[in-house]
DNA sequence: AGTCGGTTCGG
DNA sequence: CGAACCGAC
């Protein structure tokens, strides 16, 4: 394509940033005018895969993206409905000849791209798609036989050996100025959305959205906490995780940039062994994210069934009362309830608590992991289909390289290991504020722990045994 | 990215 | 008699 007088669209999707954005970079490089567009969804009320917290974060990100574009002399053009139809009609209105976008590797994203590709061909338009959501695409990390990996450790070994692309140059003024983003000439669009668009209302308060806040979090984490990540990340009351999951989910930061910067820290000669181990532990977490994207790419059926065919006939129980108690955080297991209430109040849950609450749902209550998977998607700001499914199947013991079914976390001993003084529990379950912390780590033998706090809904030791029997008989 | 129940070992 | 270790699930 020649650069002269070429108008193109950049379709923003889950890449809500200007920095190191692959499709946006090439759109700017290969055209003279880039029209930035985002297509809003039109559903209303309940949604299987999202909810108010994540939609609210999205609204904040769009507002921030619009402001960042305005600083370059442009603005975000918002349209709605079927992306293929909306993009084609916007291209027709503006005389754009091509649509640039970053691929969304989840099944829904792939479907939309397929429709766009087929409709675009009959409209005299071109599209240019780029890989941007992960450091490596699923097809870049395969066994020597060309098969997808099904076990994490060999996957991660192969992943590390794949050559890494270099980062895109920081955007030059000329690529992002008003010649590329001609604000005055942009077509009209919808106003920036708020939750009323989907007939939702907000409950609780979420982390700050937008590229600037995300970059601040990334730089803060890389400047120091990453060096203690291995020792502290599992402690519930230490805020020692990276807190970057929602930023990767919405593409507020580039996974390549995060990876490159973390690897660069390893070159620092002043590091001691535990600091090196911490950086490597964090890199391993990034690779888990890539592993789950690859699994969902190669095995999209995991959204419906257990990855491991051996466990597709587990008789998961239906118990609406128990499910409701789990959802609202009133199971009588302090650590489980604290995690669930953190989720309800903030749209976030500490990773250790995600495992514990998930194992509690599947191994203590014997409820279907798909119920928990859906609930997490509806509540989590960082809800990512691939990682969420991978995590749930891991916890349920049904997944690729999952926890063996007999590895069952004990919610009482987990809290004594990872919240010894009960600080996390007391923060999120205020009824328990005055309970001596030692009492939080064992089943109460003497009536409720506190007024207004329920007795445990099940006996962990007994349910653990039931679970072992249920799986062993498969 | 387990827990449990059993055994061994040292004070 | 508790901590450390070990195999089984």
What's the name of the CATH homologous superfamily of the largest domain? DNA Cyclobutane Dipyrimidine Photolyase, subunit A, domain 3
Rg (CA only) = 24 Å
Order of helices and strands: EHEHEHEHEHHHHHHHHHHHHHHH
**Strand content bin:** 5-15%
Q: Tell me the major beta sheet.
A: 5 strands, parallel
**Secondary structure category:** mainly alpha
How are the strands of the biggest sheet laid out side by side?
3-2-1-4-5
Description:
The structure is a single chain. The protein starts with 6 loop residues before the first strand and ends with a helix. Helix 3 (83-94) crosses helix 4 (107-121). The protein is mainly alpha-helical and 474 residues long. Helices cover 45% and strands 6% of the residues. It contains 19 helices and five strands. Strand 2, helix 2 (52-70) and strand 3 form a beta-alpha-beta unit. It folds into three domains: 1-133, Rossmann fold (3-Layer(aba) Sandwich), CATH 3.40.50; 136-166 and 211-298, Serine Threonine Protein Phosphatase 5, Tetratricopeptide repeat; 309-472, Orthogonal Bundle (DNA Cyclobutane Dipyrimidine Photolyase, subunit A, domain 3). A five-stranded parallel beta sheet has the order 3-2-1-4-5, sandwiched between helices. The chain binds a DNA duplex (11 and 9 nucleotides) through helix 14 and helix 19.
């Amino acid at each position: 394509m020649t650069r002269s007088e070429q108008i193109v669209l950049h379709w923003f999707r889950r890449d809500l940033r200007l920095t190191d954005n692959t499709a946006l970079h090439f759109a700017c490089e290969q055209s003279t005018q880039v029209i930035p567009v985002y297509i809003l969804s039109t559903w209303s009320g309940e949604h299987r895969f999202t909810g108010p917290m994540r939609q609210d974060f999205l609204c904040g990100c769009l507002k921030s993206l619009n402001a960042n574009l305005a600083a370059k002399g442009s603005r975000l053009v918002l349209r709605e409905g079927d992306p293929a139809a909306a993009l084609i009609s916007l291209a027709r209105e503006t005389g754009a000849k091509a649509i640039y976008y970053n691929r969304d590797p989840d099944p829904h994203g792939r479907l939309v791209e397929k429709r766009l590709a087929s409709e675009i061909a009959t409209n005299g338009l071109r599209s240019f798609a780029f890989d941007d959501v992960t450091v490596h695409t699923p097809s870049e990390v395969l066994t020597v036989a060309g098969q997808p990996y099904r076990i994490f450790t060999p996957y991660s070994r192969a992943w590390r050996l794949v050559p890494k692309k270099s980062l895109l140059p920081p955007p030059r003024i000329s690529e992002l100025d008003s010649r590329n983003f001609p604000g005055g000439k942009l077509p009209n669009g919808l106003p920036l959305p708020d939750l009323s668009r989907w007939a939702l209302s907000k409950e609780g308060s979420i982390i700050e959205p937008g590229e600037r806040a995300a970059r601040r979090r990334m730089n803060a984490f890389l400047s120091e906490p990453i060096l203690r990540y291995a020792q502290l990340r599992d402690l519930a009351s230490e805020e020692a995780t990276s807190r970057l999951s929602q930023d990767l989910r919405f593409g507020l930061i580039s996974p390549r940039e995060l990876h490159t910067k973390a690897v660069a820290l390893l070159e620092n000669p002043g590091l001691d062994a535990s600091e090196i181990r911490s950086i490597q532990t964090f890199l391993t977490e990034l690779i888990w994210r890539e592993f789950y994207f690859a699994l969902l790419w190669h095995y999209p059926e995991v959204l419906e069934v257990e990855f491991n065919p051996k466990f597709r006939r587990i008789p998961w129980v239906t118990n609406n009362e128990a499910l409701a108690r789990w959802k609202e955080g009133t199971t009588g297991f302090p650590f489980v309830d604290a995690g669930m209430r953190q989720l309800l109040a903030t749209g976030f849950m500490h990773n250790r608590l995600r495992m514990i609450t998930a194992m509690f749902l599947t191994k203590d209550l014997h409820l279907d992991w798909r119920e928990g998977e859906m609930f997490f998607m509806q509540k989590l700001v960082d809800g990512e289909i691939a990682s969420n499914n991978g995590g749930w199947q891991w916890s349920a013991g049904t997944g690729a390289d999952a926890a063996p079914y007999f590895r069952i976390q004990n919610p009482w001993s987990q809290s004594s290991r990872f919240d010894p003084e009960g600080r996390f529990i007391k923060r999120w379950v205020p009824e328990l504020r005055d309970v001596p912390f030692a009492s939080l780590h064992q089943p109460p033998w003497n009536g409720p722990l506190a007024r207004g706090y329920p007795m445990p809904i099940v006996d962990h030791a007994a349910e653990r045994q039931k679970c072992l029997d249920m799986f062993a008989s498969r």
